[in-house]
Amino acid sequence: VQLQASGGGLVQSGGSLRLSCAASGTIIRIKDMGWYRQAPGKQRELVATISTGGSSNYHDSVKGRFTISRDNAKNTVHLQMNRLIPEDTAVYYCRADRVATAPQDYFGQIYWGKGTQVTVSS
């Protein structure tokens, strides 16, 4: 299973970016998908997650600005980031939780994509 993220870049404060991540390989099901970020000198933190049923969870600092969405049929997850601020600057990683690669794989595994850089200039 591989996760391929795209959509990062450089944007001015107040601007928008859309991140996308596609999971490929032999996948029976994925429980949760999400985005995490890591700024220089800081620990990796959760940005947003979304379940198979569409329930989402956001870091307080991005509520009302970021929206996570998912296409279960395509095993993709997106993060629409609006009203970006310099504090959003980080490497963003997508993650897929409890990925089952066989029908009897009840617990699954966690997979991470390679990060994509998001830089917000002031």
Question: Rg from C-alpha positions?
Answer: 14 Å
Q: Determine the fraction of residues in helical runs and give it as a percent range.
A: under 10%
Give the overall pLDDT as a whole number.
96
Would you report the number of β strands? Answer: 11
Point out poorly predicted stretches. none
Morphology: elongated
- How far apart, in Å, are the first and last alpha carbons? 37 Å
- The protein's oligomeric status is single chain
> Count the helices. How many?
0
Residue share in β-strands: over 45%
Structural class of the helices, strands and pairings?
mainly beta
Order of helices and strands: EEEEEEEEEEE
| Biggest pleated-sheet summary | 7 strands, mixed
Written description of the protein model:
- This protein is an all-beta fold and 122 residues long.
- It is built from no helices and eleven strands.
- Strand 7 and strand 8 (76-81) form a beta hairpin.
- The chain is elongated and about 50 Å long.
Topology readout:
Layout (H helix, E strand, L loop, with lengths): L1 E5 L2 E4 L4 E8 L4 E10 L6 E7 L4 E3 L7 E6 L4 E6 L8 E11 L8 E4 L3 E6 L1
Parallel strand pairs: 2-11
Antiparallel strand pairs: 1-3, 3-8, 4-5, 4-9, 5-6, 7-8, 9-10, 9-11
List keywords for this structure.
4-stranded antiparallel beta sheet; 122 residues; mainly beta; 11 strands; single chain; 0% helix; 7-stranded mixed beta sheet
